[in-house]
Amino acid sequence: MDEHHLYELIDDMVLMAPRPGVLHQSILFNLSVALAPFFKGKTCRPFSELEVRLNKDIFVPDISVLCDPEKFSDQRYEGAPDIAVEILSPGSMRTDLFTKLNKYQLAGVQEYWIVSPKSKTIIVHTFWKREVSEYTLEETLASGIFEDLKIPLSDIFPKTP
């Protein structure tokens, strides 16, 4: 395996994806910066591209918010993130929109954010409430599991990459 790709293990199949491009990385950075102050000093912490094991599968969410210190090993987090975030790219759309949506829900992820660079929207699936919300560039995302976590989407999507 090489450092130019990300690898995930889903249903006993190794999925390989190229490293994200500039726009993807810009959104990832902006979202990480927006999350950091909210979680500073709390048990829950956001991580970028950390391996997460869910049953036999290994995922690498773009961002995961992880709240149980007992579930960390040297290489990964052993259990469901409280929040999993995936930024769509042409090569990952099907996996992110269908496979991961189902796997994350079944494994106990509380909230799944799907970020679309193309439409500049974020879809939030709050599984335990059975709610789906779509936020546009002019709106502020409100987490369904962290009451005070609010992020203006205008802070997330760069004007230019």
UniProtKB/TrEMBL annotation:
Protein species of origin: Eubacterium limosum
Protein name stated in the entry: Putative restriction endonuclease domain-containing protein
Residue span(s) of domain Putative restriction endonuclease: 7-140
Classification via SUPFAM superfamilies: Restriction endonuclease-like
Entry coiled-coil feature ranges: none
